[in-house]
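quick one before i forget lol
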Amino acid sequence: MIKLSKKIASFDLDGTLAESKQHLEKDMSEMLCSLLKEKMVAVISGGSYNQFTKQFLPFLTPSKEDEDIIYKNLILLPTSGSRRYQYDSLKKEWVITDEEAMDEEVREKVKKVLGEIISSGKYGLVPVVEGDEIVEDRVTQITMSALGQHAPLDLKKAWDPDQVKRQQIKKELEPLLPEVSITIGGATSIDILPKGFNKASGLLRLLNKLGMTIQDMVFVGDAIFPGGNDYSAYEAGIESIKVSGPTEVKELIKNWIG
């Protein structure tokens, strides 16, 4: 057993705590609740807050006697931490407490460039589910999901397992969109944020608000590789643990909580 010495544990969501766009599993919920009784936990994702309400929050099921402390210790960081949500115990709801805006003109340009790349047909960017969108404007972030947000997990995993396709798209996008930061996330996604902003920015912003330093945090993610949207945490000097998926995370948390 290796007890967690850090004050706060931060986790990527998709591919780390849960499979891509899949809900949090019961045993993961139980482990997170046990950890939250002892430590602060931040969950960061390229997804929107709406995704948290579908994938994460309904499946995190603390007991009534532990609910207050668990929600108090939990921080949600959607859109790569460009937004922060914390629980208001009086209102009994999650409220936004911080935001890094993305300029509207820049967002429109990003969507135009992405639309041109999609329509070129070069990368086979086609939604699998009828009516699904490839590009989602999350206000503080724009995400392109190659097969659409709601494509079956097996198709997502098979589309670009080694990130080669998305690295090619990223390379094409960068000279066209110098005003933004571009990273790879999830199974099929490319995340686009304000210039210089990434998951590390979101985590460092949180630490500053809490009066903590990078020595107080550990980060766990599946995309800790150059160009991956978790890699910035490692580059920022936050102790980072690369995992292949939820199974490894469960073992990690099991060690932390004993």
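fyi The CA atoms of residues 31 and 253 lie 7 Å apart.
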